[in-house]
Amino acid sequence: GAVVSQHPSRVICKSGTSVKIECRSLDFQATTMFWYRQFPKQSLMLMATSNEGSKATYEQGVEKDKFLINHASLTLSTLTVTSAHPEDSSFYICSAGPAGGTGELFFGEGSRLTVL
Amino acid sequence: AQKVTQAQTEISVVEKEDVTLDCVYETRDTTYYLFWYKQPPSGELVFLIRRNSFDEQNEISGRYSWNFQKSTSSFNFTITASQVVDSAVYFCAHTPQGAGNMLTFGGGTRLMVKP
Question: Exposure winner among A83, B4, B91, B106, fewest CB in 10 A?
Fold first, then answer.
C-alpha cells in the first residue's frame, strides 16, 4: 500500500537553531500534504496544508514565519521549525494521499522534536 | 466547522473484557468520512477503519467492530476480548469528502488493558 515516510524520527536541538523535517510520499504523487502537531497526551492539531508549487495554508494561531513549509515536488514536503524554542518541542506528523484519491489517507511515522 | 468528541479520556479494563470507545461528531457536510486510528506508545498512527457517510453498515474485523449511527452522529468502536497489546491511544477523526487529508481529530481515548 501507499507509504508516507518522515525523517528524522527524532531530533534534539539547542534553542535557537532551526530544524527541518521531511515528509515523502514513496509511491504516489501528492499535490497536498498536511502537517499536524501533537503535544504530550493531547490530540493531533492541524498546523498547515502544504500545497505543491504554491504557498502553504496555515491554521489560525500557527506562525508561518516560525514554521516554514516548502512543497517543491509532488513527493516531498518539508517543515522547518525556525529558531526553535523549548515550547516547540512536540511530535510532528504529516499525512498525504494520492492525487485524485477519495479519502485515502496515509500518515508518516512522525518526528519527535526536543528543543533544549 | 467539524467537531469530534471522544468523551472518554481514559479507560482501564482487564484482559479479555470487551470495551467500547465512544465517538460523537458534528458536521454540516452531507458527505464525509469517519476514521479510527490507533496510536501505540511509539507514536505512529495505525489506520483501523474509514467509513463513508453513506454507508451505515456496521463492520466487524476480527476482534474489532464499529457501529455507525448517523441519526445520533456517533461512530463507536468496540474491542472484544481485549488484549494487553490493545493498550494505546485511539483517535476518531472526520473529514469532509473532497477535503483531501485534512482531518479533524477527537481528543483521543487512552485504553489501558491490564493482564
Answer: A83
